[in-house]
C-alpha cells in the first residue's frame, strides 16, 4: 500500500523533472517570442484580492548570517491561491524588490531565466522584481482591514498571461524533482520495494 501511495504522489504532483529545465526556459521564452510587449497585468486590480496581486507596505523578516532578525517593508505579491484567500486566515506573500539592488545577471533576471525571481516588464513594475526567496505570512483580516483603511494599496493584479507566468515560475522553483542522487538517497533510506 505504501508503494502505491508513493507512486500515486509521484504521478499527480505538478513537478518538473530536473532534466526539463531547458523546456521550462523555452516555455518562458514563448511569452516574449515575437518581441512584442505583452501585458501581464490588468488595467485595474481585480474585484477581490487574488493570487498574483501586488500590494504595498508589507513587512518582511529574515534571519541574517549572524543570527539576528532583520526587517524591511516593501511591496509584495500574493502567493496564496485565490481559494485559500477565501478560506484561510493567513496569506503567503513574496517580496517585490527594486531591481537596482539585484546582485547577479540583470539580463537573465529580465528574461525570467532565474527560477526564484519573476520579472514583469510593465510600467510601474519595470524597475522591480518578485523574489521568492523572501516570503512571509500575514493574517488575512489585517491585510484586508489595512486595504480598506488605505494603509495598504492594491497596486495591480495579474491578467491570465501573467498568472500563467506566475504558475510556471512557482512550479519550476518549488516543485521540480530533486536530483537523482538525492532521490536515490531518499529511496535507500526507506526501501518500499
Explain what this protein looks like in three dimensions:
By secondary structure, this protein is α+β, with helices and mostly antiparallel strands. It contains 7 helices and 6 strands, in the order H-H-E-E-H-E-H-E-E-H-E-H-H. Strands 4-5-3-2-1-6 form a 6-stranded antiparallel sheet. A hairpin with a 5-residue loop joins strand 1 and strand 2. The longest helix has 16 residues, at 160-175. The chain starts with a helix and ends with a helix. The mean pLDDT is 83.
List the helices and strands and how they pair.
Blueprint (H helix, E strand, L loop, with lengths): L1 H11 L8 H9 L24 E10 L5 E10 L3 H6 L2 E9 L7 H5 L6 E2 L9 E12 H9 L5 E3 L3 H16 L4 H10 L4
Antiparallel strand pairs: 1-2, 1-6, 2-3, 3-5, 4-5
Based on the model shown, name its key terms.
7 helices; 6 strands; 24% strand; alpha+beta; 193 residues; six-stranded antiparallel sheet
* Helix run count: 7
In angstroms, what separates the terminal alpha carbons? Answer: 11 Å
Shape: globular
Order of helices and strands: HHEEHEHEEHEHH
Order of strands in the sheet with the most strands?
A: 4-5-3-2-1-6
**Which value, in Å, is the CA radius of gyration?**
19 Å
Summarize the structure.
This protein has helices at residues 2-12, 21-29, 82-87, 106-110, 140-148, 160-175, 180-189; strands at 54-63, 69-78, 90-98, 117-118, 128-139, 154-156.
Amino acid at each position: 500500500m505504501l508503494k502505491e501511495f508513493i507512486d500515486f504522489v509521484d504521478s499527480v504532483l505538478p513537478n518538473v523533472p530536473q532534466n526539463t529545465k531547458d523546456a521550462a526556459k523555452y516555455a518562458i521564452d514563448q511569452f516574449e517570442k515575437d518581441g512584442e510587449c505583452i501585458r501581464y497585468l490588468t488595467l485595474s486590480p481585480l474585484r477581490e484580492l487574488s493570487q498574483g496581486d501586488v500590494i504595498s507596505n508589507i513587512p518582511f523578516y529574515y534571519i541574517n548570517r549572524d543570527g539576528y532578525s532583520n526587517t524591511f517593508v516593501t511591496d509584495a505579491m500574493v502567493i496564496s491561491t485565490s481559494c485559500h484567500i477565501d478560506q484561510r486566515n493567513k496569506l503567503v506573500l513574496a517580496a517585490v524588490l527594486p531591481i537596482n539592488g539585484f546582485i547577479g545577471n540583470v539580463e537573465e533576471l529580465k528574461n525570467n531565466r532565474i527560477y526564484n525571481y519573476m520579472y514583469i516588464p510593465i510600467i510601474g513594475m519595470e524597475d522591480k522584481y518578485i523574489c521568492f526567496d523572501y516570503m512571509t505570512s500575514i493574517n488575512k483580516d489585517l491585510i484586508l482591514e489595512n486595504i480598506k483603511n488605505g494603509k495598504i494599496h492594491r497596486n495591480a493584479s495579474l491578467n491570465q498571461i501573467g498568472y500563467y507566468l506566475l504558475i510556471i515560475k512557482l512550479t519550476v522553483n518549488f516543485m521540480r524533482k530533486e536530483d537523482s542522487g538525492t532521490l536515490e538517497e531518499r529511496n535507500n533510506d526507506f526501501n518500499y520495494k
